[in-house]
Amino acid sequence: MQIIMNDDFFLKKGFLISxxxxxxxxxxxxxxxxxxxxxxxxxxxxxxxxxxxxxxxFGVYKQNVQVGLARVVTDKATFAYICDVFILPDHRGLGxxxxxxxTIMEHPELQGLRRWSxxxxxxxxLYRQFGFTQINRPERWMEKFKPYxxxxxxxxxx
Length: 158
Known about the structure:
five-stranded mixed β-sheet, 6 helices, alpha+beta
């Protein structure tokens, strides 16, 4: 893979990407995903906590304050699904999302995977830089989808 972003450039500016789950700022992550994202609005706190605990998370930090995240759901052998990718608005436009995806794609525990996937409504250009394309043979893919709002309503009925 071609290196797009230089780690030293960001490190010298006080940025860091870490997979240490102890560094994650759950309150910030929950607020952003539940209130501001288009893909996870209304996610229950318990659901997000469990998702984070069972994912390979990459936190982006500026001087020890979290400013971004990506989760990778993976078996670390054959498949990885990248999700919940965001950089807080005050830190966008600096190349952090490119650096984040590059860091994920280069991570030693994620090498040799047969398939990577993700879903996006607005960041196709970012992911194309890393070799992502539209799904080949979408007729072979299926999903079962329940928006968080409908899950919340089901829980209220119980």
